[in-house]
Specification:
Length: 299
């Protein structure tokens, strides 16, 4: 199997590269970072030449793990967020249409497409109602995947990732907690009230779920949730994380100010993924123990 991973040097992309290489697949990497490696293509972010990639190689699948995963950035720089989360998907699919119509396309989307309106587990057929430019841009990208399936017969799918964490991650909730803890372990200030809730999934389970979707799901332009199926409040997640910290007396508090564009609750209905045979390997405590070990070794 020959797999192209766009955004190969990022958190999720690099874990996908390691996973598929360990399965002895032929993996070609592509990212905007300046790196010299035989298996690597450097993409020019302002004028990406995806045609070259698809004319030089034949791929079974292209996984798009590129893009920006930052809600605040999308408010500050909506055009740049659109370019990296939406326009790049259009350009990739156009290159596949022109050069390799049999290459499947799996796009990393986000639970941010759902928005802020339900305390019930979100299933894929609920109407999207995003509350940030990031959520809208991910949704537009999903529609482009659907467009290229319906009108040009390409095999596409969007996977809606909820909260991913684990080794290699240098942003978002647990990374921020770790940075603040290292700066001042007596008072780690966290955004919000702590009653917000998310569905957390360890990166090894995310990669395993993507592999299952690739092998078992129809690429018919639709979307599928990737999550654990268990909703955890931020307070519970913080308690679990702090219990694992080296300093047992570390303290945290909540600012009671919500971040703009962050939904209160994102609970996932994962029945569709379960029907494909997915069950998570790690609960939050086990996954965070692995991540904590990585954080401490990294220093
Ligand atoms: N981390 C999460 O919890 C999460 C949740 C939902 C969705 N996602 C989505 O998953 C994807 C990957 O997230 P991540 O956390 O690994 O982010 P990341 O920032 O760690 O990785 C993104 C990678 O994409 C690269 N990149 C940016 N523009 C590119 C381009 N035009 N061409 C090729 N490479 C480019 C970056 O250099 C980086 O290496 C994003 O699309 C994000 O929206 C992530």
């Amino acid at each position: 199997m020959s797999i192209l991973i766009i955004g190969s040097e990022g958190f999720i992309g690099s874990n996908l590269v390691n996973y598929f290489k360990a399965q002895h697949d032929n993996v070609i990497c592509a990212d905007i970072k300046a790196i010299q490696r035989n298996d690597y293509y450097q993409i020019n972010p302002t004028d990406p030449n995806y045609d070259e990639l698809f004319t030089n190689h034949s791929f079974s699948i292209c996984i798009n793990a590129s893009g920006s995963a930052n809600v605040k950035f999308s408010f500050d720089q909506p055009k740049l967020d659109f370019d990296s989360n939406t326009l790049s998907v259009f350009k990739l699919l156009n290159a596949i249409k022109n050069h390799q119509v049999n290459c499947k396309f799996l796009n990393l989307s986000s639970a941010a497409v759902y928005g802020n309106f339900s305390t019930e587990p979100l299933s894929e057929n609920i109407h999207c109602n995003p509350v940030s430019p990031y959520g809208f841009h991910k949704w537009y990208a999903e529609l482009i995947c659907k467009e290229y399936h319906v009108l040009f017969n390409l095999k596409t799918i969007s996977v809606r990732l909820f909260s991913v964490y684990g080794e290699g991650q240098e942003k978002l909730l647990f990374w921020d907690m770790w940075q603040k803890y290292k700066a001042n372990n007596n008072n780690v200030e966290l955004f919000g009230s702590g009653n917000e809730a998310r569905d957390f999934l360890h990166i090894e389970d995310v990669v395993k779920a993507i592999d299952i979707v690739y092998k078992k799901e129809d690429f018919n332009g639709g979307a599928i949730n990737i999550a654990s199926g268990k909703t955890t409040t931020i307070k519970e997640a913080a308690t679990t994380f702090f219990e694992l910290l080296p300093a047992k007396n570390a303290q945290y508090s909540f600012t009671h100010h919500a971040k703009k564009g962050d939904p209160d609750i994102l609970a996932a209905d994962i029945s569709k993924l379960q029907q494909l045979g997915f069950t998570p390997t790690f609960n939050l405590h086990e996954g965070l123990s692995k991540y904590m070990q990585w954080l401490q070794e990294k220093k």
